[in-house]
Amino acid sequence: MIIVVRIHVLTSPVQAFKYENSRRYHSYREGSYWGPNDEQDALHQTVTHRLFSLLLNDKLYLAPLANPRNVLDIGTGIGLWTTNMADAHPTAEILGIDLSPTWHDPFRPNLRLEVDDCCSNWTYADEGRDAFDFVHIRCLYGSIHDWPRLYQQALEHLKPGAGYIEQAEISLVPQFCLLGGHEDSVFVEWYEFWRDCGRKMGKSWFVADNMARLIYDAGFEDVCETRFLLPLFGGNDNDHDHDDVTEDNMCNNSARRREITRWFKQFWETGMEGWILATSTRYMGWTADQAREFVKRTRDALMNGESDVYYEMVIVYGRRPES
Asked: How many angstroms separate the CA atoms of 46 and 83, rounded?
């Protein structure tokens, strides 16, 4: 295992982080990323990884890679995807970068983890590293100010003709299986919050619905987009309330749909305080109590199954041209 930290390592691990409203956040380039990096967030990342694995039938990516040798994972978090990738491709060199050194169980001989900021100028070529076969991005909504620049830097560091970028994001636009009567839904309130907060942050939360075009505009070829439905209603074995509703064969009552729903509800349960606590108090003028009350209302809606809302997970990949 090789762990490289590009910042000055302080003697006390507590000094490497900051605390705000009882949650822990990164201090390197403080404020660049809105999310916490504590154990509660680690649980959320674990749930997210399981949800994505379920949707992809345990695949780690959709891009048609041919024996990848050099892989970059941006925003690696606790390192679940990178460790799985290192195990799946033992002859490949896997590099994961993040603003926080919070990775779990990174002991792989072909895995390298670094504290770095993907929004800075990439210097991998200057450091003598080979071009990447694969650049992987997942769940960076609300985190990047200039997506075209990030995609351009990825393009320049991929192997001509063979290197792929792939990005997986949750579309935060709520969809409803039944028409009308959703104006008062707490999930519409979430959409409005992310919309208004993104404007104040200067970082859109809705990259999932634009990334195919942006990746294509950056110069990638063979751009492919795949969408997976993530329902939030139902999820109980004895739930038949929506058997008569269909939406791409996923708004009916099936064992697979129920399992996806259960994990997607856990995605919300474990993640929503982290999504809103810092963003609402830093940018929207909320108090921490207001943010937690909003989380409570959402939790009640999830528990009561009050809405027929679903979301989409979007995966886009593209290949760098030969020239």
From this structure: 13
Q: CB within 8 A of 89, min separation 6: which ones?
A: 67, 68, 71, 110
Pairing of strands 309-319, 164-176: antiparallel
Q: Determine how many CB atoms are found less than 10 A away from the CB of residue 308.
A: 22
Beta carbons of 319 and 222 less than 8 angstroms apart: yes
Q: Which residues pair with 158 in a beta bridge?
A: 132
Q: What are the pLDDT digits (tens) for 221-236?
A: 999 999 999 999 865 5
**Separation between Cα atoms, residue 29 and residue 25, nearest integer Å:** 11
Six-digit token string for 34: 């809105």
pTM higher than 0.85: yes
Rounded distance, CA 8 to CA 44, Å?
28
Question: Please, which pLDDT band fits residue 22 given cuts at 50, 70 and 90?
Answer: confident
| CA-based max dimension of the chain | 60
Rg value, the chain, Cα: 20
Dihedral of alpha carbons 205, 206, 212, 215, sign: negative
Query: For residue 144, which of 209, 198, 190 has the smallest C-alpha distance?
Result: 198
Q: Domains, the chain, ranges and CATH?
A: 2-319 (3.40.50.150)
pLDDT in tens, 68-94: 999 999 999 999 999 999 999 999 999
